User: Which sequence fits this backbone?
């Protein structure tokens, strides 16, 4: 195999926009007449199994779960956002989507914070697309923090909302 195998079988990973998954298999498949190493990843939140060429993991933003220390720092930094948000929901949505695509836990936390506060500060609910984006980002954040901190998902959710309520 000519590309680096970064993950091992049984390791938890984060697949941006998809969720927390687990490497269930590493093997080689024929692709364009070459043996190519693939990760097989199971993503429980969607009950989905995907095969990703090892060489594509970095470009897709697939990464290891954050450490306990990084997870705690992210949780500690959560706070209501300051400053005005873009008033055009389509631009906000695209900006948030760009942040979620990075797979960075701090970016995910920022999106959750911004959309949570926006939903609380407006007399009308979030547009449907932003509501789905919020629900998805919150799930991603809770899943990763609960695994990294070895804490119950409901407890993590309560901690997140406590921070966002200020």
Assistant:
């Amino acid at each position: 195999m000519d590309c680096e195998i970064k993950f091992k079988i049984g390791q938890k990973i984060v697949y941006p926009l998809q969720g927390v998954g687990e490497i269930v298999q590493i093997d080689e498949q024929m692709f364009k007449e070459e043996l190519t190493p693939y990760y097989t990843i199971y993503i429980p939140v969607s009950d989905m199994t995907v095969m990703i060429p090892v060489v594509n993991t970095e470009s897709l933003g697939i990464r290891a779960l954050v450490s306990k220390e990084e997870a705690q720092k992210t949780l500690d930094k959560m706070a209501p956002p300051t400053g005005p948000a873009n008033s055009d929901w389509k631009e906000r949505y695209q900006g948030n989507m760009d942040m979620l695509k990075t797979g960075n836990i701090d970016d995910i936390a920022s999106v959750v914070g911004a959309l949570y506060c926006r939903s609380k500060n407006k007399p009308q609910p979030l547009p449907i697309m932003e509501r789905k984006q919020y629900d998805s980002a919150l799930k991603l954040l809770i899943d990763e923090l609960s695994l990294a901190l070895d804490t119950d998902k409901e407890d993590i959710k309560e901690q997140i909302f406590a921070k966002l309520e200020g």
User: Anything to note?
Assistant: The helical segments are 57-60, 68-77, 89-102, 105-121, 128-149, 153-165.
